[in-house]
Amino acid sequence: MTRIAVMKEEYNKQLLSLLERHKSLGIGEQIDYQKFYLYSIIAHSTAIEGSTVTEVETQLLFDEGIGANKPLLEQLMNLDLKVAYEYGIHWIKGHEPITVDWLVKLAAKVMARTGSEYNTLGGCFSAARGELRKLNVTAGIGGRSYMSYLKVPTHLAAFCEELNERCKTIDASDACAVYELSFWAHYMLVTIHPWADGNGRTSRLLMNLLQIEFDVLPTKVLKDDKAEYIQSLVDARESDDINIFIDCMTRLHCKHLKNDIDQYVSTTAEPMVDKLAMRQEMVDKWSIKPSLAQKLVDILHFMADNDETTTDVIVKQFGFTATTAKRYLRQLTEFGYLQSQGGNKNRTYRKVASRT
Questions:
Q1: How does DSSP classify residue 29?
Q2: pLDDT digits over 58-108, tens only?
Q3: Element holding 167 (H helix, E strand)
Q4: How many CA atoms lie within 13 A of 167 on its CB side?
Q5: Residues of the chain with CATH 1.10.10.10
Q6: What is the largest distance, in Å, between two alpha-carbon atoms of the chain?
Q7: Which among 16, 85, 102, 164 is most buried, taking Cβ atoms within 10 Å?
Q8: C-alpha 100, offset from chain centre
Q9: For residue 142, how many C-alpha atoms fall within 13 Å in the half-sphere facing its CB?
Q10: Where along the chain do the CATH 1.10.3290.10 domains lie?
Q11: How far apart are CA 138 and CA 102, in angstroms?
């Protein structure tokens, strides 16, 4: 196995471990977590492009309509990107094939109020309408030129065809494969550079939409990572090695997951039930299947803020049958996590003090 392959395997192991830890702590179950996570993605995506609107200012802008003391153009960038994400999330859940026309609509949402009109030798076009560029562009002053605008339609159509084929054949249960697909799509789209403006935001948006479609936690690209992120794109293009970018994105996602986990653990008033560790304890100590242990741990996690429960409560909370709920509660009692009180009709289950 080559050094690059070994590194990729290590990154993927770390990613899976952190995703499991993130899930076991129930971080994503917090009130409004998905909303504020999305706001963070949007604020940082526009910050990569030069916006100075902070996460807090973005939240106030979206939820309260309170504008920041920042340039109007930057605030419009955030508002447009929010609309684009909402449109994209609704659309991607339909699992329709991704087409050039749809990418044009997506880019039009991203650039709706900040896109310019262009009048070039190749023809007139509008960034605000998501129209493909009709002029050649470079990656900054002295940067490498992107492909000729004349080649963009053909390459973009081929990209959509390959992306749809990859989506059909991917193992949706393999989180690492899903992330790699999304990073590949990001890299390919931004390398084609179909638009005069908005390529970075639209490519990151497509990456996140693919992650949402296959039900994995979307990747943030924080403004503090801008230099590393952009350098990985440059290095991947110059070396013709997409793995440079994929590895960078995996590392960054792992770093952000770890930071979120550390922050959550350090700021939680009462220690949460560590679902992963408790599940393993049950498997090791009582030789039960991990799937059963997970259900038992979910019940204990639900009871973290409730001293007692009943069969009816568990049935309503988890959708189990009454027989199944009774069996799970009986097992937790036998294992020493709960103690039962009362007769069959009025039986309650309380947490054992030593287990809290």
A1: G
A2: 999 999 999 889 999 999 999 999 999 999 999 999 999 999 999 999 999
A3: helix 152-169
A4: 20
A5: 275-355
A6: 86
A7: 85
A8: 23
A9: 0
A10: 3-28+95-104+111-267
A11: 25
CATH, range 275-355: 1.10.10.10
DSSP per residue over 213-248, as a string? HTT-PPPP--GGGHHHHHHHHHHHHHHT-THHHHHH
Phi-psi category of residue 54: left, alpha or beta, with phi > 0 → left and psi -120 to 50 → alpha: beta
What average pLDDT does this structure show over 37-42? 97
> Band of the pLDDT at 269, cuts 50, 70, 90?
very low
Give the fold, CATH level 3, of 3-28+95-104+111-267: Fic-like fold (1.10.3290)
Output the pLDDT for position 306: 73
User: 304 or 170: whose pLDDT is higher?
Assistant: 170
Contact 188, 143 (CB under 8 A): no
Point out the least confidently predicted range of 158-172, 182-196, 265-279, 317-331: 265-279
Q: Which residue has the tokens 């504020």?
A: 36
18-to-6, 94, 190 alpha-carbon distances in Å: 18, 29, 28
Residues in Cβ contact with 202 at an 8 Å cutoff, skipping those fewer than 6 apart: 84, 103, 106, 107, 110, 189, 195
Distances (CA, A) of 318 to 4, 25, 309, 322: 44, 18, 13, 11
Tell me the pLDDT tens digit for each residue of 197-206: 999 999 999 9
pLDDT in tens, 112-149: 999 999 999 999 999 999 999 999 998 765 567 899 99
Asked whether the whole model's pTM tops 0.85, one would answer no
Q: Are 78 and 57 in contact (CB under 8 A)?
A: no
DSSP line for 299-354:
HHHHGGG-SEE-HHHHHHHH---HHHHHHHHHHHHHTTSEEEES-STT-EEEE-GG
